[in-house]
Amino acid sequence: MTLRLYIKIIQKRSLQPKNSSYRLSKLNPPHNRPSFGHLNPIQVDTTAQFNDFNHPSRAIADAEQHTLHDELARLKDEVKAKAALVKELKDVRVELDIEIARSKELLSRQPPSHSHHSWADFDTKHAAAVRFYEDFSNLLVLSIKFEQRGNMEDDILYTCMYTHVAMMTDDETEAWEVERTITFSLRVCTDLSEEPELARRVKYTPLELDKLSDEFKERLGFLANGFSFPHNQATLFWVA
Length: 240
Fold this sequence. Notes:
This protein is of the alpha+beta class and 240 residues long. Helices cover 45% and strands 25% of the residues.
């Protein structure tokens, strides 16, 4: 290094302030300097932001749940109203069937082959007794016919219709009536095989079984087939 270059370096150093920290302190006094050690980290209320974000969705869900609850209540009311209407219609149908059966009875009654057994010969008390029995039971006597058997007592053929009304319940414990009807004939006749004296018997014959469901025919049991029994045991027929 030459002497001239060395002198220039010394001159430059002499021109600089002796204390650089003093220059910095002048420019930025201590009381104006920021104290980074006292700064707190930025705190964000994430819970409030989360609640604000989910508030619209929760309100929509609550509104939909309220709407579904109202719709369910409305549907339940409709089901109850329809059930009541069905029950009323069934009651009307039962009454209508009974009236139709009675009308058919009046139309189907034909004069018998001999006059002394005519239906018209029944006196008022007997007719009232028959009607009373029909009104207070489920058995309708549709027709009565007498058939001569020579020197023996005439056969009597009763055509009857029995209606059974049962109460049914479902899973919701709501009850309704179910009616089942069977038509049959009862022939009261003299059995020639009975000795030493002739005995009267009753022959039961089911009618129109083809109009009944297989389930109902199974529930009829022995009533789905014909059979006979002594006339003096007629009261046991309904008990069975």
